[in-house]
Amino acid sequence: MTPDSATIVALATAPAAGAVGILRLSGPAALEVARRLAPGVPPSPTPRHAYLASFVDAVGAVLDEGLFLYFQAPRSFTGEDVVELHAHGSPRLLRLLLARALEDERVRPAFPGEFTRRAFLHGRIDLTRAEAVADLVAADSEAAVRAAAAGLSGALAERIRSLETPLRELHADLEGVLNFPDEAEGADAEAGPRVASLRSVAEALRAEVGRGRLVRQGARVALYGPVNAGKSTLFNRLVGEARALVDDEPGTTRDALEARVEWDGLGVTLYDTAGLREAPGRVEALGIARTRELLSAVDLAVLVLPPGTSREEAASWMRDAGATPVLAVTGKCDVLPGARAEQGSVGDGAGALPIGAGALPIGAGALPINDAASGGRSATLPSPAPPRVSGLTGEGVDALRTSVLARLWGGGTPSAVVLVSERHADALRRTAEALGRAEEASRVSTLEVLSGEVGLALEALGEVSGTSVSDALLDTLFQRFCIGK
Ligand SMILES: Nc1nc2c(c(=O)[nH]1)N(C=O)[C@@H](CNc1ccc(C(=O)N[C@@H](CCC(=O)O)C(=O)O)cc1)CN2
Ligand SMILES: Nc1nc2c(ncn2[C@@H]2O[C@H](COP(=O)(O)OP(=O)(O)OP(=O)(O)O)[C@@H](O)[C@H]2O)c(=O)[nH]1
Ligand SMILES: [Mg+2]
After folding, report:
1. Which residue has the higher pLDDT, 371 or 401?
2. Does the annotation place 229 within a ligand binding site?
3. 107-109 and 219-224 as β-strands: parallel, antiparallel, unpaired?
4. ipTM, 2 decimals?
5. Is there an atom of ligand 2 within 6 Å of 79 CB?
């Protein structure tokens, strides 16, 4: 895993016109090569001092005037000698400077993520922080920026360390007993409980992958329900512009529409779907099939019900979402006569949804469905009424947004999240599984087996921090990065 000795070069800024464009070199020849482009800079420049310099071509003609910044190894981002040329942000000029740097045979173009990879290989940052760099660059919501920044300052690294350190100590204790049974007597006595508690730490960390995904990719929320319930009108209101067609003819929406919004810093992709109904036309039926497919893929389905929908009907609509959590709302609430409207207004009363009950049941689970025997009002289920909204007037829309976030997020703030990726979760799963087997071994097997499993747990965990990673894994990880990062 020793890095090669080549000096690498790449643009550190986007290849587009801008105020400033940066060419960055890292490696043993960085200073010498950069000084050939900026001969006015002294041979031993003061590290971290910004020199104003002329950048010249092969015959000494001036191409630009810019800043020259030298970072002396190991006090640099990569841990190697680094030079940055801060030129004017002309893509063509920067290509000229890049080509000049590449004329030296010690220099080659950097691979995607190679600067960060070198920072990792030189122990400047651990793997969780290197990955946080990529998360930060890719972040497209405020929550994603904040969570990545927490990762960059070592939040995940700290959590992993709090598992890795005691695990390593346990492993050392066990190996001690195995190697020096007389001296280390009793060091293994607590092995079972120690393993069990470490396992629960690993499981808890692993459980954060869901939140990590929500923050990283944003949540997906679909509006669905019967035709003509006011879904598209509500969608437009939530998005803040007239994206979806609205009409009083049932079956107006055929294709699902999507829009990206940011609520409380959390990215949310909102979908408007084709209304569901029996026996639609052929094209509309295709739209309905697509709605069902989408419903199974989203994080939350918002069921928009027309006023006066019966409890039985509502329950049946809710089943359409399958395993996806549902938040039911009563739409078009501006047409309701008032808070007492449900009394006798729909069907037989007992089976009707209480429409008017004011407050939003934030975080309430699925709409409780009372059976006939409970008389529609059981002692244990105070049957929260679906919150009322009107896409037309905007009433209840802010409260709906709050409810959606509460259902997606379930408390806490998105910025407090540790970004556990699918990759981390997989390594943590293997850690927990090995600890599970270790726990079993502590009861029924030999100390060798127990220690072996603890060793395997450590190895799996090392894939998160980077203490045990293969080159192949690093290749995959750093492919996510852009060139010059
Ligand atoms: N111009 C520029 N801006 C940049 C970067 C860069 O490489 N160049 N970065 C690149 O991604 C980020 C900053 N990251 C950096 C991290 C460490 C060091 C560094 O020199 N570390 C030394 C010294 C620390 C100190 O003296 O406080 C070290 O860790 O030893 C520099 C940049 C974002 N902004
Ligand atoms: N009074 C009132 N009318 C509404 C409201 N929302 C929608 N409507 C009206 O109801 C009709 C249907 O609205 P849409 O938003 O197209 O309903 P939809 O659920 O998307 O309908 P489909 O796409 O056909 O399933 C239109 O005439 C809207 O103007 C509301 O909050 N209050
Ligand atoms: Mg519609």
Report:
1. 401
2. yes
3. unpaired
4. 0.88
5. no
Residue in this structure with the two tokens 């007389």, named with its chain if needed: 182
Please give the structure tokens belonging to residue 110: 């950097």
- Confidence band of 11 (pLDDT split at 50, 70, 90): very high
3-state secondary structure of 19: strand
The token pair that represents 463 in the structure block: 């894939």
Q: Can you tell me the distance from the alpha carbon of 368 to that of 228, in angstroms, rounded to the nearest whole number?
A: 24
Determine if ligand 2 sits within 6 Å of the CB of residue 85. no
Give the chain's domains with CATH numbers: 7-123 (3.30.1360.120), 132-208+420-465 (1.20.120.430), 217-414 (3.40.50.300)
- Strand segments, DSSP code E, in 209-275 are 219-224, 257-263, 266-272
Residue 351, amino acid? G
Once rounded to an integer, what is the mean pLDDT over residues 103-124? Answer: 96
Rounded distance between C-alpha atoms, residue 24 and residue 45, angstroms? 16
> What single DSSP character describes residue 417?
-
Cα(244) to ligand 2 centroid in Å equals 11
Pairing verdict, β 300-305 and 219-224: parallel
Residues 247-250: contacts with CB under 8 Å, at least 24 apart: 250/275, 250/277
- Compute the distance between CA of residue 237 and CA of residue 261 in angstroms, rounded to an integer: 12
pLDDT tens for each residue of 239-261: 998 889 999 988 888 888 999 99
Q: Which of 38, 5, 6, 2 is nearest to 107 (CA)?
A: 6
How far does CA 165 lie from the centroid of its chain?
Answer: 26
27 lines ligand 2 (CB under 6 A): no
- CA–CA separation, 402 and 405 (whole Å): 5
pLDDT at 278: 76
Q: Nearest ligand, CA of residue 390?
A: 2
Give the pLDDT band (50/70/90) at residue 418: confident
> Phi first, then psi: what are they for 108, rounded to 5°?
-140, 160
Tokens of 343: 């009394």
CB 103 within 8 A of CB 4: no
What's the Rg (C-alpha) of the chain? 30
Beta strands 18-26 and 326-330: pairing type?
unpaired
